[in-house]
């Protein structure tokens, strides 16, 4: 793999460690969709809810699970209420609710002086256990709400992926049990625009599913990683206006063809693996129903003859990890990717156009997407920042981007990296361009 | 002789033949190709620019410096583990062997993470207890070594019929974590480790 190595252009700096930390391993942290909060799944069977404004613990959600809580996911679009799904090694998923009265700022002030509130109020203030989703035979490894909030996907060591639909409050129906994988299913993730679900597994593959004539079916099989795929995440929506594409093609025909191709493919997929790599995958656009029908969301009158999709490997990111990569996250603001894993490093990558001077010949291959792969891509990924020992000597189990919300915020849309480690700590990092 | 044992007649080594610190005849295997003679002269890895350096070995050391842990020490930690089906140690059954222990120092001057690789040799090629033994070795080392060590336990190549599958399980952190929350399995492992102190 010939990857150009450049001097890192960005700096990762410690902003805060969420306090107090857990006494035992923490697995994963999910930023709240609208409030400045994160929820952290802990091996001590609890979930810890921290403020991203004060960096302190607001709630400890306990008493629901009999084993480690492995995964957490906030339901989107729940005005006036926060809804949290938790997945545990005890094979069950829990749903928790909390009424969100008052303003967001209330969060930081509430616990400062008002600890002596009468008990009734304290109870109402907590996350209330609302229902349990039973069905998996062994440990739940990951769960995720669809972007509309209609579906919840869960996956387990029992090799299955379940899709649940919330018909009304606390009434969940199993709409699909997908048993395509030959090993533990490590992670599930939804496409940001379509009801398309991805799952990553111990069987080294990634599989994609969608509904076809009332049945959820596998529509794509992605092989490439030679070892366990630990995490999978789709690119954000509308990234062409935010990432390297925002500058446009500059009149360069090859670039404008590539921008168009990405637009027709839709959001891409990032995966990471025990094989120490991070990879990006792209869908081959379907041209049968005319250009643009896939991502414009216009239903086609003529049903596509096949729901199958072909996804190809677009890039292997520069290899900077020397042990398993457990987590990868795509920034919705900049399109940058962050990864972390067993070696305790945090690495940030950015995509850019390849230098035109040592450019590549473009004749032919762009017209035939099936022969396209990383070799012909006019873009490349470069490492812009890396940080060793981000959690001392401990492994990092999860990393993600979140909106920065503390007083030191440098712009409305500034993002921070949130990392979750074996040391029980959740750490918050800023990323800034060197010399800016 | 109990018939339900998977290997009723294991080969047992004489305790005096097992490698120990006192027997200088035991050749130490070194991955770096060095003789070890000058190791003390080489300065410890330096942790410049590491904002967290003060706590990296808080759990195990007095002076905060990275102490040397060698293959013999690893061997001593795991050779006394009891076999799950025989009242014998993994050392005397030659399930763990000194030449099959490898320590890899940090891969970068910015890193303080060392790797310990232990290759175990199950007594028979189809021994389904291989996973349990491997798990016992991994648990023992995770408990005894400072957290800067990453522990890889594998079945020695060619000694077991399903070594790939067992290796994959033993290398999967999430599976290991879940296994350690399983009371029955932990009971077996605890029994194996009783002889370690």
In short:
The complex is a heterodimer of chains A (436) and B (197). By secondary structure, chain A is mainly β.
Structure description:
The complex is a heterodimer of chains A (about 425) and B (about 200). Chain A contains 4 helices and 29 strands. Chain A is globular, with a radius of gyration of 22 Å. The model of chain A is unreliable at about 105-120, about 290-295 and about 360-370 (pLDDT under 50). Chain A has a 4-stranded antiparallel sheet, with no helix packed on it. Helix content of chain A is about 5%, strand content about 45%. Chain A starts with 9 loop residues before the first strand and ends with a strand. Chain A is mainly beta and about 425 residues long. Chain B is of the alpha+beta class and about 200 residues long. Chain B contains 5 helices and 3 strands, in the order H-E-E-H-E-H-H-H. Chain B has helices at about 70-80, 130-145, 165-170, 175-180, 185-195, and strands spanning about 100-105, 115-120, 150-155. In chain B, strand 2, helix 2 (about 130-145) and strand 3 form a beta-alpha-beta unit. The longest helix of chain B is centred in the C-terminal third of the chain and has 15 residues, at about 130-145.
Please describe the structure with a list of short key phrases separated by commas or semicolons.
heterodimer, A: 436 residues, mainly beta, Methylamine Dehydrogenase, Chain H, 4-stranded antiparallel beta sheet, 4 helices, 7% helix, globular, B: 197 residues, alpha+beta, GMP Synthetase, Chain A, domain 3, 3-stranded mixed beta sheet, 5 helices, 3 strands, 9% strand
* Structural classification of chain A: mainly beta
CATH uppermost class of chain A: Mainly Beta
Look at the structure and name the CATH superfamily of the domain at 69-193 in chain B: Fe-S cluster assembly (FSCA)
Query: What is the average of the pLDDT values of chain B?
Result: 79
| Intertermini distance of chain A | 32 Å
Count the strands of chain A?
A: 29
CATH architecture of chain A: 7 Propeller
